[in-house]
Design a protein that fits this description.
disordered C terminus; five-stranded antiparallel beta sheet; 17% strand; DNA-binding; homodimer; three-stranded antiparallel beta sheet; elongated; alpha+beta
Chain lengths: 364, 364
Amino acid sequence: MNPNDLNERKLQILQAIIADFLTTGEPVGSRSLSKSHDMGISPATIRNEMSDLEDMGYLTHPHTSAGRVPSDKAYRLYVDELMDTSELPEEDKQKIRSKLMESRNELDSTIEHAAELLSDMTNLTSFVLMPRKDESKLKYINFLPVDSNTVVLMIVAEDGQVMNRAIRLSVPYTEENLQLMSKVMTHNYRGKSISAVMAMDIIDSFTNDMQSLSGLAKDVVPSFLKTLEKMLNADLVMNGYSNIFSLPEFSTDMQKTQNFLKMLEDKSKLTDVIVNRDKGVMITIGDENSEDMKDLSLITADYRVNGELVGRLGVIGPTRMKYGKVTSVIKYISDNISQTFELKENNDVKDDSNNDGSADEQDS
Amino acid sequence: MNPNDLNERKLQILQAIIADFLTTGEPVGSRSLSKSHDMGISPATIRNEMSDLEDMGYLTHPHTSAGRVPSDKAYRLYVDELMDTSELPEEDKQKIRSKLMESRNELDSTIEHAAELLSDMTNLTSFVLMPRKDESKLKYINFLPVDSNTVVLMIVAEDGQVMNRAIRLSVPYTEENLQLMSKVMTHNYRGKSISAVMAMDIIDSFTNDMQSLSGLAKDVVPSFLKTLEKMLNADLVMNGYSNIFSLPEFSTDMQKTQNFLKMLEDKSKLTDVIVNRDKGVMITIGDENSEDMKDLSLITADYRVNGELVGRLGVIGPTRMKYGKVTSVIKYISDNISQTFELKENNDVKDDSNNDGSADEQDS
DNA sequence: GTTAGCACTCTCAACACATGAGTGCTAACA
DNA sequence: TGTTAGCACTCATGTGTTGAGAGTGCTAAC
């Protein structure tokens, strides 16, 4: 476990094996290794060292007469100690900066671009997790008439999150009803966090408050709760899932490809995994992941807006991935986003309870 | 081309071949056909007829000694004349109804459920196209403060469509500015269709109107236009893309699978194709589609809300699909949605220019 | 017009076989 | 004692062969 178990030469050999394997994907043998990396020792010696490394759990063997393949443990050592975390070439940096610049005043587009960059530059499947904030506070709740039996519920949070949903009513309504309901709900929930509101016994208190509207309320409250829930649920966006076809791991193994894509299709599960990771740059390799991702690796990083952690992005792919390069790209992109959206001034606009987002125009 | 070219027996044989091929996916030979469908003629006779059918373009041969496979032309004939469009079994109908019932007062969730049902019941990849309305009219435009350099732009259309987007400002703003801007823009664009507003020379007229805000306006207008554009762009949601792995067409042919998934990943192109199809139930088979879908078939249908066409749903899969069953499912689902969301009363709520969605509360 | 018979074609799976990359072990070497 | 050359052995992979099976097309008889 401790890299000190390994002498200098073993480390050097291990590193060489990993380097070769990362680029070719083929098990690497003693002979070809001694050719590609001149380290002044014969294949036989390399074989002896490889045998030791295998005993120590850093290498495995697909079958007797194949070369060696790094184990998850080897990748872990590589990531922690050996990998080249050198700077990204200026060309790549430039590409990232200019692409993110395109939409620098819009967080949503920037995030989309980031996901595209990430999958393009790593040739892996990338994902971006949009903000999820249990603690955002509600600002106002609004019902808009659409037609005689449809209204749109709109919920706005202080942090600018807006969520809306069309609701079909089973009872007739009047505009006055809607306005009253908007007013009461805004009054009741403004300034409270989403999770706090969800924990309240809404149906009871609401129908008590507004007996005149109880029919309407019955239609509306379940949708209101669902919409709040949706505001809490982080939105996972993925990109480049067909990149895996260019990797020999997948393009020669239909079963593996199928498993991978099935796994990606279960978004809620994947979202859970991503949400529950550590902050900062986190790399998990092979069996460090849950059972259904045990031959995949995941790299994630966070981005901040105004210094506050709001989202997470990363890639998923086979354990054989170029950890150094991928990590540099992820880091650079997430830093760049955070930097673009850093706080310019420190005084937030104070909340004015009269500004509830209404244009409030009086023309006619 | 005209089915009258084919006598009764040829039609019967063709239908039998298609039926067998649809279930097995294997080329069907004269001998096995005479066994599975007793039609009182010998394999030799069937062979003669098959040969004729091949000359007429209804069948092909993968190679000399293989059985026959229906051509796209045969599928077209099958879909137009031969296929069994019998009612869905009550069990399936029940399943559809109860699933759609779950969320009957919310269009969005209903649509999502519809897509899931569709892919589950057909074992194909389903998609749903959300409304796209060039002609929806704007109702109001609103800017909400988030922090010192971020505001949220919110656009609400009369039909209940709400779109919002966070905008990063490069200049400071005051709440008064935002309200003024909301007011002016709402005044300028209310009641106009999205496409009409996009066609206007917004930047000029806007900065003329509001010289005091020209700095703000420069930041805001491009995002405003982008957001309008986003409102026009139909949103395509897909489901069950990994279903294809259970089909022998794909699970034995990695290249085909890759092409299929790459094609699905280019959402804007696929959206275009779907948007530009005919109304009602439309089936396109193999080479009736564009080059990159020439060995796939597409079936789409529309759903209505309040009698008005608003969206489209369908499936995409190999030309070997159970057209009868799939069509019945799509029809039943789309009819069911349309029915659930049919107009209950006929009088739309008249637009009240004072109700612009503001909760407009006065408490403090 | 229909059918039986037959020669022919082509795919596919099974098998044998050679090749080559790679290992592990042993014995010699520095 | 660590390093290396040599060698026997293993195993995946590719290739060629072969036989079975499914199917066709043609011909001649019914």
